[in-house]
Amino acid sequence: MGGIAVAGIGKRFGATTALAEVTLEVAAGEFVALVGPSGCGKTTLMRIIAGIERPDAGQVRIGARDVTPLRPADRDVAMVFQSYALYPHLTVRQNIAVPLTMRGLPAWHRLPLAGALLPGARAARARIAQEVARVAEPLGLSALLDRRPAQLSGGQRQRVALARAVIRRPAAFLMDEPLSNLDAALRVQTRREIVEIHRRAGAATLYVTHDQAEALTMADRVAVMLGGRILQVAPPEAIYADPVDLRVAAFIGSPRINTLAAEADAGGQVRVAGLATGLRARAPGPVTLALRPEALRPAAQGLPVAAEHVEFLGDGLLLHARHLPDGAPLVARLDPASPGRVAPGERLALEFDPARALLFGADGARLPTAPAGVAAYA
Amino acid sequence: MSLALGTAARPRLSAGAMEALAGWALMLPATIAFLAMLLLPTLATVLLAFTDYELGAAAPAWIGLANFADMLTDRGLRTSARNTLAYVGIVAPASVLGGLGLALLVEAGARGRAFFRAVFFLPVVSLSVAMASAWQYLLHPTIGPLNAELRALGLPTPFWLSSSDTVLLSLAAIGIWENIGFTMVLFMAGLTAIPRELYAAAAVDGARGAWDRFRLVTWPLLGPTTLFVVVISLVRALRVFDTVAVLTQGGPNKASEVLLWTMYQEGFTYLRLGYSAAITLVFLVVVLALMALQTRVLDRRVHYG
Amino acid sequence: MTPRGSLLPGAIRLLVLALLGLVFLSPYLWMAAASLKPLDEIFRASLALWPENFAGVENYGKVLARVPVAQYLWNGVIVCGGILFFQLLFAVPAGYALAKLRFPGRDIAFGAVMLGLLVPPHVPALPLYVAFSEIGLLNSYAALIAPFAISVFAIFLFRQFFRALPDELLHAARLDGMGEWSIVWRVILPNAWPAATAFGIFSVVAHWNDLFWPLIVVQGHARATPALGVLQFRSEEAGDDFGAMMAAAVLMTLPLVLAFLLAQRRFVEGIATTGLKG
């Protein structure tokens, strides 16, 4: 019993490479979010898994079967589209039933009129009606079954699309930004429901989104995609705290991670504008020091900055400042009770916890770090 | 009236009154032309239909429904109505189905799309009188290329436009040739309006082949287009005139007599304007009935609002 | 895979299309071929498209010598141009008023437009003929143009188009001190080009090809439109001279077909969009 596995997927559109050597696995019962900025290739990958798009290279396996040459209909996948893609001429009931009627009934049963008269058709239809009732109930669609999509709100349409996806108990669910057309409040509520649906169905779910908050809150593992490549696949905590690539670190987290140009000296000591940081790199050379906003705090000694302004968030403060030696912007997330007023232009020092500092090489790859002992800021 | 009246020096009328004046002024030219060229002549046609008005004859008399009673017994008109019905019955369905088929076929691939669209659309923009002459040559019983080919194949060579058995069919074929490009581009416009996501959804939902996709997505979503195309094809076929006027003049032996040709003959050849107006009125009623069918009955079934 | 799905593999699709295309083009091919052939070749009914003896000069020469081809085409230009000019002159302000201004009687006016859409042009033809004949205007450009000067379809089309224009555009123009009349011609019309082009193509194609009305009001060559010209040449001059006949047909068909081939996309879109809204 496998989930979804893609290996070595490549896809070009004319001269542009949409996907390069993409490999990703979603185990049965697992929820993986594929996150990246728009145009990074995540929707293309999803459409290749569904079979709507053909890859130029690579293999797609669903439920331990190689489905690369198969049509979407034969792949045992269900998909929720960003636009929901409901059939406007069918009622909610009929929309939800489509995956069953298309598969469950042979073509001649589906002909108008004739279908109703053929033996076996009645039993098949009764079974379909039962299934529709089963999936409609928990989604709160029971009262809406005879409406057409045009008579539904955005949230209701979204539920119909979900119901249509779950009715067939497929081996894999594909969801393409299913929440992006909902308003903010509904989005947060529906996140939970989708996770719940996923748990009940127990299939492999691949969830495409450009919203990192969705990815981090919903998924068992997050795959970060940029420029047609998957840079990292890891649980949400690891993606946030332990990114393997500077681009992943920069994409995940809001406010964005702070980056400072730094230099490892001959002894491996990492210095920012000459200031020793207490971090040690394995080899000398230019590196990037990346610091989450919550890793910074005001102190007597540390990175010299000029404050620019302070944003009050309710549960915290964001201090926007400029690193004095090179003018790089820095954001620190502070305890609301902490510093009192910081006036624009005020100079102060920010220290950071070396255990939470990240180092990246010139090529963006993560470098291992070791605290250099107590001699920080010397 | 606004309370601001008189407080502002220059605009002596309220903004609402100014807007109304502007609206009337802008409508005025169109209204005059509408009355003179459309409304009054149409009403006059309706009135004429109840008179025995003949151009050049004595003052017209009101004869009530006599023209319509005459129409019921007029064998020529009955032939004309039957021919028109047959013509519409062939041309309209063939134009709709043919146009849909061509649109699907042309849109099914990228290669040659613009070229073939142009080829099938060409008859729509061609001077129909001139093309009728070309058809006359093509269908000529002795020197026409079509019969020359049939002869070469050893097949019978009908007198296409000069035999009462085939004349209506020949005219219908020309009518289909003239109309199909028009219905095709309407269907193409309808096809491009179908969201592509629906085809992807259909594929994932289990649509395996072209027929499944057509049944589940294309056909239902083309509903409004199809309804419109059906009605406009019926009306266009009902209006057949040019080919008859050029090629057969209703002949041979009234076998291609159609409604507008009869109306034209009665009105402008025999100058029996009253009778001609009565025929026109019947024509108008049929057109209005088709439009009513579109809006009242069928619209509800194809719009999924 | 293509979403619309090919019923047939690509090669078969092209083959079917090519065969159908050939059928559709055959009247044009044979028309052009016959216009270049001498009479005896035409009467031999050979299946060769290309003439053995080239008689194009004779055939086209005959047409040009016997009927005023240039006059027909010129009449066509005047009539179509005149019709389109008046249609726009009347319909653009009316469409704007119906779309953007509030005035008593607007709903009645729009109702009249919608009703007018249902009336085929053949219906008012009889009384109009009588009227033109009474005031001695038969055989004139006025008789050819006037009945079509008002197009309820154009009013409807422009009204739909103008409703989609933002009101801010008009408010800004009014703040700049423009009157409604100058708003129509200086703000609205420049924004109406897409609708005007589409309608213009629709109108010109319809009236260039119209036979019914010219046949009623015009006798003789002086005011004959191209459609009428072909008919006159046919009945008066050509007889069984198919070579000359086809040459005349080619000459009269060519202008619009050339215009179509040069601006295919606009033609198809113009007629499809106006068609769908009508």
Q: Short description, anyone?
A:
By secondary structure, chain B is an all-alpha fold. Helix content of chain B is 71%, strand content 0%. Chain B has helices at 15-48, 66-73, 75-107, 113-125, 128-138, 145-152, 167-192, 196-204, 210-221, 223-238, 242-248, 259-269, 273-302.
List the helices and strands and how they pair.
The complex is a heterotrimer of chains A (378), B (305) and C (278).
Chain A: E1 4-13, E2 16-26, E3 31-35, H1 42-50, E4 57-62, E5 65-66, E6 77-80, H2 92-104, H3 107-110, H4 114-117, H5 121-136, H6 154-166, E7 172-176, H7 184-201, E8 204-209, H8 212-218, E9 221-226, E10 229-234, H9 236-241, H10 246-251, E11 258-264, E12 269-272, E13 275-280, E14 285-291, E15 296-299, E16 303-312, E17 317-323, E18 329-334, E19 347-352, E20 358-360, E21 366-367, E22 370-371
Helix pairs in contact in A: 2-5, 2-6
Chain B: H1 15-48, H2 66-73, H3 75-107, H4 113-125, H5 128-138, H6 145-152, H7 167-192, H8 196-204, H9 210-221, H10 223-238, H11 242-248, H12 259-269, H13 273-302
Chain C: H1 10-34, H2 39-43, H3 56-66, H4 69-100, H5 106-117, H6 125-134, H7 141-145, H8 152-163, H9 167-175, H10 180-191, H11 193-209, H12 212-217, H13 226-238, H14 242-262, H15 264-277
Helix pairs in contact in C: 3-14, 4-8, 4-11, 4-13, 5-8, 11-15, 13-14, 14-15
Pfam families (chain B): BPD_transp_1
Membrane topology (chain B): Multi-pass membrane protein
Protein name (chain B): ABC transporter permease
Question: Key terms for this structure?
Answer:
heterotrimer; A: about 375 residues; alpha+beta; Rossmann fold; OB fold (Dihydrolipoamide Acetyltransferase, E2P); 2 domains; seven-stranded antiparallel beta sheet; six-stranded mixed beta sheet; 10 helices; about 25% helix; disordered C terminus; C: about 280 residues; mainly alpha; MetI-like fold; 15 helices; about 75% helix; globular; disordered N terminus
